[in-house]
Amino acid sequence: MAIYMLKKAQSDVECDRYLSIRQQEYARKIMFLNEMKNLQTLLTPENAKVLQNFNLLNHSK
What we know:
Strand content: under 5%
Oligomer: single chain
Radius of gyration: 20 Å
Largest sheet: none
Number of strands: 0
């Protein structure tokens, strides 16, 4: 949505506002991807077994 609004912006103030929104969205997505990468690193098969033993990880089959 921010990209669409950025294209339709009619002033420098609007452009700056929508560009800022887009940058915030991008930063949030990068942070999410980094968190997923960290979780993949931490969730080894051994760790998954420990979590399952304490019912902290549901393993659906």
